[in-house]
Request: fold
Amino acid sequence: MEIITTHKNTDFDGLASVIAGTILYPGATGVIPKMVNKNVERFLSTHKTAFNIVLPNEINHDEVKKLIVVDTNQWRRLDRMEKFKKRDDLIIHVWDHHGEGGDIETAWECQENAGSTVTLMIRELRRRNISLSPLDSTVLLIGLYEDTGHLTYPATNADDAKAAAYLLQNGADLNVAAVFLNPPYEEVQKDILFKLIENTEKFTHRRVSVGINIVKLEQKIPMLSAIVNMYRKLISTEAVFAIFINDETTSTVIGRSGSDRVDVGAIMKHFGGGGHPGAASATVKTKDFTPEKIKEHIISVIKENKISSATIADLMSYPVTMVSPETSMKEVREIMEKKHIRGILVGREDNLEGIVVLWDLKKIKQERQWKAPVKAFMIRQVETISPELDPVEAAQMMVKKNIGHIPVEHEGRIIGILTRTDILTYFYNMLPD
Reply:
């Protein structure tokens, strides 16, 4: 068994380096410390099942033959890895971008000065001509940007920039990255942000909440796009439109959306601008549209339902695999393995009694328990969702309830099931052609 781990209080460079390691070392399992940074915790709450990662207490130390340590070279910074210090037969590799030495004796190491550890690993991925999925590329880019201050910190070098380019070529999503990275703000940016929050006008159309605002700029303000990104998150709406009055002749409109149901790129085309569904902007001449007219037109376009309408019904998997409460856990495991699924519903389509997921199988410690009925292990309080709701609502439910499977219920019957994988597939544009 091979495992890859990183330091306690894991940041995004540590997490990204572990994920990069699972690609460079096929078959290896990532081990993420229990203590992680808040933004990493938020990311893992929705993405953890997309990667081959576990917690330290989920591995059998005696089965480990190779240990790969990333983003540190010090035993004290690892989580529950003390047993390995005394293992003479253990093969240890280290990847680390910190210049100072460490106390882990290695069979092989890559320890160089760079802006981030993931940069060193991306260089090897490039050398092997390994292509990455958009999701892998995005999390690696978040790690790279966090440790290099978006490529602005003094420790940043040319390899960091090349790594960023490689990730963007492989589909890294800057909008997703922006959500998990906290940009630095000066007083002038904070003032604009407070003005936006203070004067927000909100409206809701078909369960989609939108914030809209008009702000007069007294001077040229850098990072307006980043301010609007933060603004949308703080006021908790699916979309925002900030109309900045530059002077008497022009206004700048910036739109940001966290919902597939509001395509801000399409809306900005009404003003001669452009972008994509999640982020767009336009510079508008006052003679064509006054700021108030811009606001009225945006509201009109949205209320005329010129927005996309993907729903849970479009993403859910069906037919649903269901078993009776008396089915043995052994049979449940066999069904999961055969169908390559992580969750099975218990009951009937018109009488849902529970759900059992892959995690529940880990509760079984004795061989005789595999003969026990699934009702002894299933979760009885099951959250369901309606098929016409927005995918964002499902994602929010998964984060809030810390669940990875949601049965889809319509008129008292289970018609499908939505999983974290379905959500990730949708939001990262990995749907099949």
Q: What stands out?
A: The domain at 2-180 is CATH 3.90.1640.10 (inorganic pyrophosphatase (n-terminal core)). Residues 71 and 350 are 51 Å apart (CA to CA). The chain has a mean pLDDT of 90. The chain has three domains: 2-180, 187-303, 313-427.
